[in-house]
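Subject — a protein and its fold
Fields — amino acid sequence, structure tokens
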Amino acid sequence: MGFYSDRIVPRLVDISCGMKFTEPTRRRVCAGLHGRVVEIGFGSGLNVPFYPAAVDSVSAVEPADLGWKLAGKRLDASTTPVERSGLDGQSLPFPDNSFDTALSTWTMCTIPDVDAALREVRRVLKPGGTLHFVEHGLAPDENVQRWQRRLEPIQKTVAGGCHLTRDIPTLVTNAGFEMTDLDRFYETSTPKIVGAYSLGVAASPPVRA
């Protein structure tokens, strides 16, 4: 990682993703998390205050040392045990069927091989376990999509590889998850090119006899 991606991007993400208007969305996506949780793209721990009481522990997957450092105060204030347990969502260091629930917030836009990461999340979830996610991605309106395609190269450069045009629900279902809840909407506090949100819950299919 270079100086910009290593020292600057984690601070930009902490500021931009830590704005007050994100809190209701974080609370909403964290609802229903329980048991052992794996969170990919833990960042600076912005979800920590919103973990429900039903969460027993969180295994945090986060490549940026600075992101983990910025999470310090949130971790100190939390009653939920959180351990930094991996660096790469594309290759999770956990056995199969290890977790009850998984969490991803504004992370799938940046992972280079998001298909591999989603397959890994499905692998480490127990059968019937759920992935809770909120992501920005491909807008439903063609005029917004045109601007997303135009600006994506700039976005990827300044925002650590962040894509604007990934179709998040399709990526999740293509990885073998079964969508159980999905809400697609524009976040009114941000431009539409980065505010086309998909918030949902997807289940890892149970083993069928």
Notes: The first helix runs from residue 3 to 16. Strands lie at 35-40, 55-61, 82-86, 99-105, 125-136, 178-186, 196-203. The longest strand covers residues 125-136. The mean pLDDT is 95.
